[in-house]
Design a protein that fits this description.
- The structure is a single chain.
- Strand 9, helix 6 and strand 10 form a beta-alpha-beta unit.
- This protein folds into two domains: 127 residues, Nucleoside Triphosphate Pyrophosphohydrolase (Alpha-Beta Complex), CATH 3.90.79.10; 155 residues, 3-Layer(aba) Sandwich (Rossmann fold).
- It is globular.
- The strands form two sheets. Strands 1, 2, 3, 4, 5, 6 and 7 form a seven-stranded mixed sheet that branches. A six-stranded mixed sheet has the order 10-9-11-8-12-13, with helices on both faces.
- The protein is built from eight helices and 13 strands.
- Helices cover 33% and strands 29% of the residues.
Length: 313
């Protein structure tokens, strides 16, 4: 399939989104995190006390309309604890009913990036750091204990590599008269790039790599400019110049230095190098199709891939 064709991608995306609506009228979405600090072998966990319910729970809150869940998790943690965090692997989603409404809360691991600037408010009046087992005992709800169990079952400290397929483009491939690599993002693609900026900020990606095409560099631009970063261009992440061994070396290099990384490129190159990365390093399913304006986040620790997450922007 040509990278310039949109119709198949749009049909596939609509089908995937139809499986579980992102914002159904009777469905509440929320996001939160298991926030940890200290030694990854013996982490302390941040719990918050809500005076309205007199309970101890994990920091979480509702997703604002149009907000990406990854960005929402970081924002809600900050609003409830005053902590700046770096997001790690996704843990699980919790489903329950609240006042007759179905509610889904997604949780991630999150490392505290500095001291808390906690301020008591109407929703949260206390925050406490507890060792893992003490936190398990202190939590009020079984659903929170299940999240903490998932956190403890995997590596605590992980490093992300985000494989980003560029956003949607202007016009169609047949109508475009300029050089294909100069074809820019359309309005939807620009909105996807803005959403990506919030996602990459949650992971604190400092190493940026892009295929040398307008649509790929534009996809990373909002995040790059907001954080005053540089983007290294590499034609290995285009369709024409993709070469498995070379692209794999780039990704393994980022893995070796354990620096949060984002790579923006074409579907064929990203799916190819993901498949190569997972050989012998990942026990789960690695066949992940990338839509325009989507990404796969690979989390690694001790030279093993410990999580793969796919997101639509």
């Amino acid at each position: 399939m040509s990278d310039d064709k949109n119709d198949d991608d749009r049909d596939d995306m609509e089908a995937a989104m139809a499986e579980e609506p992102l914002c159904a009228p009777d469905f509440i979405r929320a996001a939160g995190a298991v926030v940890w600090r200290g030694d990854s072998e013996a982490p302390e966990i941040a719990l918050v006390h809500r005076p309205k319910y007199n309970d101890w729970t994990l920091p979480k809150g509702k997703i604002v309309h149009g907000e990406h869940p990854v960005a929402a998790a970081v924002r809600e943690v900050y609003e409830e604890t005053g902590l700046r965090v770096t997001l790690g692997r996704w843990l699980r989603s919790v489903h329950y009913e609240k006042k007759g409404w179905a509610k889904r809360v997604d949780y991630w691991a999150a490392q505290a990036a500095g001291p808390a600037d906690f301020v008591e408010n109407e929703e949260v009046d206390r925050m406490s750091w507890l060792p893992l087992e003490a936190a398990r005992t202190a939590l009020t709800f079984e659903r929170d204990i299940a999240v903490l169990t998932d956190f403890a079952a995997g590596p605590v400290a992980t490093t992300p590599i985000a494989f980003v397929r560029h956003g949607q483009m202007s016009g169609s491939g047949d109508d475009w008269r300029g050089k294909k690599k100069m074809r820019p993002l359309d309005h939807v693609g620009m909105l996807q790039a803005e959403s990506l900026a919030g996602v990459l900020a949650a992971y604190r990606a400092g190493n940026l790599v892009s295929a040398p095409s307008e649509r790929c560099t534009q996809t990373l631009e909002p995040y790059r400019s907001a954080n005053r970063l540089t983007v290294r261009q590499d034609k290995l992440f285009t369709k024409k110049h993709y070469e498995p061994a070379g692209a794999l070396r780039v990704v393994l290099g980022a893995m070796a230095v354990r620096e949060p990384t984002a790579i923006c490129g074409y579907r064929e190159s990203l799916e190819g190098v993901l498949a190569e990365m997972c050989k012998g390093r990942y026990d789960g399913e690695a066949a992940l199709h990338l839509f325009k304006g989507s990404l796969v986040v690979l989390h690694h620790a001790a030279e093993r891939i410990v999580g793969l997450e796919r997101y639509i922007l």
